[in-house]
Structure formats: structure tokens, C-alpha cells
Amino acid sequence: MLLMAAVSTSASAAYDRNQAVPVEKVVYGQVESIKHVTQTQLVEDRNLGWKTFGGALIGGVVGHQFGGGSGQDVATVLGALLGGAAANQYGNSTRTLEYKLIEMMINLDDGTQVMVIQDLDPGMSFVAGDEVRVVYLKGYVRVDIAM
Q1: Looking at the DSSP assignment, which residues form a beta bridge with residue 73?
Q2: Whether the Cβ atoms of residue 79 and residue 59 lie closer than 8 Å to each other
Q3: SS3 (DSSP) at 15
Q4: In the sheet that 131-137 helps form, which strands lie side by side, from edge to edge?
């Protein structure tokens, strides 16, 4: 049997269900198995450089308030270094996004099998045995309950 895999790279619907899109092909089948999976993605803060610069600037201004003459210059530089280091350390924010996906093995009416991984849509739940339609759109595949 032919086994094909279609994976949504962004893990989100590539179209809004209320949006008209051109369809390349529609085939029907029955869900053989379902597996709920997650895709975890680390997202790093892209503003880290600006935060470090801002921390150094504020640290330099605070450091400039202390001492006089060359001592004031040393305090300014030391304040800028400490402010930049603090902003770099505490401004380094990394967060995790988790996408909920559903992996479906589908027996198509023509005898072939396809595996589709798509985002989990709370409005459309699938169970083994469901009659489904596999909609091939330009660049991706979407599975819906057959109507």
C-alpha cells in the first residue's frame, strides 16, 4: 500500500474555514487510527540586543551620578557594564509554545492509506471509524468529517 505523510509546518490551519480556496483534489476514506501529539517550539526574544543596550545606557547614567573627575568616568563605565550585563541576564526571555496536533491514519476508498498530521480543531473531533474527506489544497492537505 502507498503510504504518504502530510505535515503542516506551521501547525496551524493554513486557511480560515470561512475562506474560499481553490481545491486540487478531494478523496474520501475512513479513519483507521488517531494519535494526539504536541509540537513544542522554543521562541527566543528577538529584542535582546535592545534590552542590553537600554540596560547599559541606564547603568551608565546611574553610574555617572557618583564620583568626580576620572572617578566619575570609571563609575559611568562600570555602571554601563553592570547595567548591560544585568539586562542581558534578566532580559533573556525564552518561552515555549506548544501546538496540539492530531495524527490520523486514513484508509482511502481507493485502497491506499495516507497519514495526515494537522492542528487539533476543537470544533471537529475525530474518532476511529469516522468517514472523512481528505482535501488536497495547494501546498497542504486538510481532513474534515465527510458531509
Answers
A1: none
A2: yes
A3: coil
A4: 3-7, 113-119, 94-108, 23-44, 131-137, 140-145
